[in-house]
Amino acid sequence: MYMLYVIPGSHACRSAILMLEHKQVPYRRVDVPTLLHPLAARLHGFDAGGETRIAGTRRTPAIRSGDRLGTVPALASHDHRISTNRQIARFLEDRHPEPPLFPADPLQRRAVEEAERWANGTLQMAARRIALAWAVRDPSAMSRSVADGRMGYLLYGRALTRRLIIPIIGRRVFDVDPAADPELLADLPAMLDRIDAWIADRILGGAQPNAADFMIAPSLALILYRPDVLHLFENRPALELVDRLLPEPA
Ligand SMILES: N[C@@H](CCC(=O)N[C@@H](CS)C(=O)NCC(=O)O)C(=O)O
User: Fold this and answer.
1) C-alpha 183 chain-centroid distance
2) Which among 81, 80, 50, 82 has a CA at the least distance from the CA of 66?
3) 101 in a domain, yes or no?
4) 155 and 231 fall within a common domain
5) Residue ID of nearest Cα to ligand 1 atom 9
6) From ligand 1's centre to the CA of 26, what distance in Å?
7) Cα radius of gyration rounded to whole Å, the chain
8) Is the CB of residue 219 below 6 angstroms from any atom belonging to ligand 1?
9) Contact 220/238 with Cβ under 8 angstroms?
10) Mutation to probe ligand 1, out of 71, 92, 156 (largest number of atoms < 8 A from CB)
């Protein structure tokens, strides 16, 4: 039985959850308290899989420390400790080939891996900073709105904790200030265009979702917790993708 260490509502962690569900392998989800997760990951024998994350143009001290200690999602089997979605995807593909996470054709696989790399390197951080810019600008509205959603509540179950702590995470860990918001949002349409183009080229959004779909949909779902960005998604294939993999709760 696998154990998957996550923090609640994390888009990065949701990618691993979706991949495990796709493979239909039994696992136990272990929720770790947000902010203690780098330490908890390390204490459970994980590292950060060699990631060197950048928030905008900065590697803040908190990000450096997370990259030294460990990140979630983190997957434990009786003899393995695997961190990062990239490595989890490959581990699962090796151990449980069906249904696949990557196309068999080498050219198609390369295209999916390129989309996966971009989702990990660019989109995952951009999505986090877009959501956090809102938290920094309007902590009360954010705290109310993220009590539930496509990935459940975000980071903390209690509204007051969300209101107090999430803006601090935004500022201190991910270098977000209210002035950054317009700039972050200005980059969003081009990112959505890129995703739509991959869908048009059948690299994403196929009948059988792949590792890149599972990396991209949760980042879009996180951005969509913000009610003020919905209009940017209207009529886009990217919205159909996230609606299919992570529907809005009824
Ligand atoms: N890109 C990696 C890293 C995921 C990641 O950044 N996870 C965050 C939680 S959403 C984390 O563990 N951060 C630790 C920290 O910032 O100290 C992946 O997809 O696995």
Assistant:
1) 21
2) 50
3) no
4) yes
5) 72
6) 23
7) 17
8) no
9) yes
10) 71
Tally of domains within the chain: 2
- SS3 for the chain is CEEEEECCCCHHHHHHHHHHHHHCCCEEEEECCCCCHHHHHHHCCCCCCCCCCCECCECCHHHHHHHHHCCCCEEEECCEEEECHHHHHHHHHHHCCCCCCCCCCHHHHHHHHHHHHHHHHHHHHHHHHHHHHHHHHCHHHHHHHCCCCECECCCCCCHHHHHHHHHHHHHHHCCCCHHHHHHHHHCHHHHHHHHHHHHHCCCCCCCCCCHHHHHHHHHHHHHCCCHHHHHHHCCCHHHHHHHHHCCCCC
**What confidence tens digit (pLDDT) does each residue in 55-114 have?**
998 999 999 998 999 999 999 998 999 999 999 999 999 999 999 999 999 999 999 999
- Do 225 and 123 belong together in one domain? yes
Query: Quick one: tokens of 56?
Result: 């905008």
Which of 61, 95, 129 marks a domain boundary? 95
Domain that holds residue 207: 106-245
Residue 133 · residue 170 · CB < 8 Å:
yes
Per-residue pLDDT tens over the stretch 187-231: 999 999 999 999 999 999 999 999 999 999 999 999 999 999 999
Residue % of the chain over a pLDDT of 70: 100
